[in-house]
Write a structure and sequence with these properties.
The protein is α+β, with helices and mostly antiparallel strands and 172 residues long. It has five helices and seven strands. Helices cover 30% and strands 34% of the residues. The longest helix is centred in the first third of the chain and has 16 residues. The mean pLDDT is 90.
């Protein structure tokens, strides 16, 4: 496994990223996550992302993914604190715009976010929970060095059952 992250740069999520969030809300990107969100849901999500990125406690951070050397904004990624199986952990999630998929950018960004979560230092493990049917996101986890713990039932969005894979990476 290579740790190459030189193809992307992570930049903290900001007020200016609302348009990116709307672009990432496309049906083809949200199919494994319960479908596109309403405008009201997007406004709330954007506010959470901005607040998380301004939080200096190490609880997490959201980023826009910038493709280098083109300087094109191609997606989002982040990590945040949560409790999983009674243990405080970080969770990560990402999305890459359709025109930039299939180039390994999500994997490069995931490796970069692993370094960010490790530096934040609050939790020992970073988890990802892609749908068991999301071949591309499961491949990102594998290529980024996560260990597959198995399939689990998850609820995302709240109230919608999802069969996901539980991937874990040791940040220690």
């Amino acid at each position: 496994m290579t740790d190459d992250t030189s193809r992307v740069r992570l930049e903290p999520w900001s007020e200016e990223d609302a348009g990116l969030l709307r672009a990432l809300n496309a049906p083809e990107l949200m199919g494994h996550l319960g479908g596109p969100e309403t405008e009201e849901q997007l406004v709330r999500r954007h506010r959470r992302y901005v607040e998380l990125s301004a939080d200096g406690t190490g609880a997490g951070r959201m980023f826009r993914i910038v493709l280098l050397p083109e300087e094109a904004v191609v997606g989002s990624i982040g990590f945040w604190s949560q409790t999983w199986d009674g243990e405080p952990v970080y969770e990560t999630g990402w999305a890459v715009l359709p025109g930039f998929q299939g180039r390994g950018l999500a994997t490069s960004a995931t490796r970069a976010v692993v370094a960010e979560a490790r530096a934040a230092g609050l939790h020992r493990h970073l988890h990802a929970f892609p749908s068991a049917e999301n071949t591309a996101s499961n491949a990102v986890c594998r290529k980024a060095g996560f260990e597959l713990l198995g399939e689990r039932d998850y609820e995302y969005p709240p109230g919608r059952p999802l069969r996901c894979n539980d991937w874990r990476l040791d940040l220690g």
